[in-house]
């Protein structure tokens, strides 16, 4: 019984480690240009300001405001990810994995707040996920704007 429990715990830990490494690999993807700035400005997203405040000024974390800000940005970007310039109106496998990873980071942020641990690493990881989503949405919108789609495809994507 003890051996079965030990194997289950180790297998679960390795599974979550594998998922985290896979997500980090996806997040390291380089884009040919920075698309996120236009999406952030157009949709008034606040995650870049949150990231800058934490990285440069080492500001204290106001948990309630921070969580609400990041949650709103996360919901806006996941909606745009599915609907803006996306002909299939579905998430890709990578996007689904990152959405689940983002939700896990929100849970981690909640636990860190309850246990009074450092919240900054979870916030910065969440900001990296949001940055990736903004780049993907910007890349899709840029592709539509420059006419890589037929007119009928463009109308379907709106």
Report on the architecture of this protein.
It is globular, with a radius of gyration of 18 Å. The chain is 76% helix and 0% strand. By secondary structure, the protein is mostly helical. The chain has one domain. The model is unreliable at 150-158 (pLDDT under 50). It is built from seven helices and no strands.
Keywords:
mainly alpha, single chain, 158 residues
Profile the largest sheet. none
Kindly name the structural category.
mainly alpha
Distance between the first and last residues' Cα: 56 Å
Structural domain tally? 1
Radius of gyration: 18 Å
Sum this structure up briefly.
The chain has helices spanning 2-27, 36-43, 47-56, 63-83, 93-114, 120-145, 151-157.
SSE blueprint:
Blueprint: H1 2-27, H2 36-43, H3 47-56, H4 63-83, H5 93-114, H6 120-145, H7 151-157
Helix pairs in contact: 1-5, 2-6, 3-6, 4-5, 4-6, 5-6
């Amino acid at each position: 019984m003890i051996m079965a429990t030990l194997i289950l715990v180790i297998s679960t830990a390795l599974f979550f480690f594998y998922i985290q490494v896979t997500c980090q690999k996806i997040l390291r993807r380089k884009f040919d240009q920075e698309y996120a700035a236009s999406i952030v400005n157009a949709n008034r997203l606040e995650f870049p300001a949150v990231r800058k405040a934490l990285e440069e000024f080492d500001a204290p974390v106001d948990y309630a405001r921070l969580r609400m800000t990041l949650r709103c940005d996360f919901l806006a970007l996941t909606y745009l990810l599915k609907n803006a310039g996306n002909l299939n109106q579905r998430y890709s496998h990578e996007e689904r994995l990152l959405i689940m990873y983002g939700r896990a980071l929100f849970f981690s942020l909640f636990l860190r707040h309850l246990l009074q641990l450092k919240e900054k690493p979870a916030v910065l990881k969440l900001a990296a996920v949001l940055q990736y989503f903004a780049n993907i949405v910007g890349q899709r919108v840029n592709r539509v704007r420059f006419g890589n789609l037929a007119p009928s495809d463009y109308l379907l994507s709106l």
